[in-house]
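Appendix B: a complete holo record

For completeness, this appendix reproduces one full record from the ligand-bound portion of the collection. The bound molecule is S-adenosylmethionine. The inputs are the chain sequence and the ligand SMILES; the output is the full three-dimensional arrangement of the complex, encoded as structure tokens. No fields have been trimmed.
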Amino acid sequence: MSNMFDVYQNFSDLYDELVNHEDYENNLYKFLNDNIQWENKVVGEFGIGTGRVSRNYIDKAKKLFAYDNSQHMLDKAKENLSKWTDKIEYSVLDNSKLNTIENTFDIIIEGWSFGHLVVQENENRDQTIQYLISETKKRAKEIIFIETLGTNVESPNPPGEKLSKFYQALVENGFKEHIIQTDYKFNNYEDAGKIMGAFFGDSMKNDIIQKQLNVIKEYTGIWICRN
Ligand SMILES: C[S@@+](CC[C@H](N)C(=O)[O-])C[C@H]1O[C@@H](n2cnc3c(N)ncnc32)[C@H](O)[C@@H]1O
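The structure of the chain with S-adenosylmethionine bound, as generated:
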């Protein structure tokens, strides 16, 4: 299996296992807590997945409106975030329909989700990028986009022209770019190959096994805009 969308629709446990091995040094948590004031804030999170990003701030936030277009992922997020049920409202929403929500937030955050829409939108990529920027800016004063700058690579770079365009547009529209490492760590290279390969595909799996890697580098970009 290597189709990410199949994972999102049917294999949330596998996705959750993958991200539970990511960022073993806790750099995302440190960054988000050192740089963002979450206390008493109303947060809108898009493409919440199984709740890995939300776990970093939910203790402090006042309320979270959590969105994803996969009910299957939302169900896993509900399980993972059950301790905070009282302050989370879950909704199925496609990122292309941001314009339909009436809520506004103190903070909007998304992790590794908007990039999918940007990559898929071959016909209207520039408009999609502007749409994601303008619809989030209308709805929050502080906006945080988290996206990949490469998996199993030696230095941070946008993986491909399509995401490169997206990241460039963020900076041109007032977002400040930060780069952190969120490396994966597994007990052994066999587990690393199996779990990483199930999500990223066979060439990732073969590379990890051939190099016997149990730590896999991941570079992560965090773009923040304060209106
Ligand atoms: C790589 S996962 C990231 C999940 C979570 N933010 C995290 O950091 O683990 C991408 C998530 O975005 C969701 N997603 C993908 N395309 C989407 C779209 N067009 N609209 C809404 N959600 C989408 C998927 O269902 C999945 O939960």
